[in-house]
Amino acid sequence: MKITFVCRQITVKDDLKVLVDKKLSRLDKYFDREGDATVTFSKKRNREVLEITISAANTLFRSEVEDESFQNALDRSIDNIERQIRKNKTRLAKRLRAGVFAEEPSYIPPEEPEEDTEFIIRTKSFQLKPMSAEEAILQMNLLGHQFFMFEDQDSGETCLVYTRKDGAYGLIVAEKK
């Protein structure tokens, strides 16, 4: 697995990077192909925050943990990602091996806000992937988001799945005029 380390306003020792590499190698058994991992170290209010994002077969697994030390956060993050994989094992098995999803979304940094749009805090752009609603719900759950936008693989329409307050899922389909 290819690992990229990002350190935000802190310096991380090499022995911690070696430990992260060793712990992430436990996850290699789940991926036939090479996976890409991004490990971000940062500090927030005197606590250490570790974020791990793994992209394999264009399926994203993400965990963000805040703890007293990076070692504790690392253990909890690895456990979280393993739990995500095991929870969705049957659905993911064919995707991780077959590479069903399209390319990973390419994020574009936000532009400078204009004076009229002071309420816009952040802008993200990404390519819509053709997939079914079930695949979109799986991807949304793996990312830990409340909604996920995608392109319906059958109709080509832009769709959005979301989590309802009652725990069920909703689907919004955009109609073209």
Helix/strand-derived category reads alpha/beta
CATH superfamily name of the largest domain?
A: Ribosome hibernation promotion factor-like
Number of helices: 4
Order of secondary-structure elements: EHEEEHHEHEEE
Widest sheet, order of strands: 1-2-3-4
Mean pLDDT: 80
- Beta fraction of the residues? 25-35%
Q: Summarize the biggest pleated sheet.
A: 4 strands, mixed
Please tell me what the overall shape is: globular
Low-confidence stretches: 98-110, 112-117
The radius of gyration is 18 Å
Any idea of the CATH topology of the largest domain?
A: Double Stranded RNA Binding Domain
State the CATH architecture of the largest domain: 2-Layer Sandwich
Helix and strand topology:
Layout (H helix, E strand, L loop, with lengths): L1 E6 L6 H11 L11 E9 L2 E10 L2 E9 L2 H18 L1 H10 L31 E2 L1 H11 L3 E6 L5 E6 L5 E5 L4
Parallel strand pairs: 1-2, 5-6
Antiparallel strand pairs: 2-3, 3-4, 6-7, 7-8
Helix pairs in contact: 1-2
Question: How would you briefly describe this protein structure?
Answer:
It is built from four helices and eight strands.
Features:
177 residues; alpha/beta; Double Stranded RNA Binding Domain; SHC Adaptor Protein; 2 domains; four-stranded mixed beta sheet; 8 strands; globular
What does it look like?
This protein is an alpha/beta fold. It folds into two domains: 2-98, Double Stranded RNA Binding Domain, CATH 3.30.160.100; 122-173, 2-Layer Sandwich (SHC Adaptor Protein), CATH 3.30.505. The protein is 28% helix and 30% strand. The chain is built from four helices and eight strands. It has helices at residues 14-24, 70-87, 89-98, 133-143; strands spanning 2-7, 36-44, 47-56, 59-67, 130-131, 147-152, 158-163, 169-173. The chain has a four-stranded mixed β-sheet with strand order 1-2-3-4. The longest helix is centred in the middle third of the chain and has 18 residues, at 70-87. 19% of the residues are buried. The model is unreliable at 98-110 and 112-117 (pLDDT under 50).
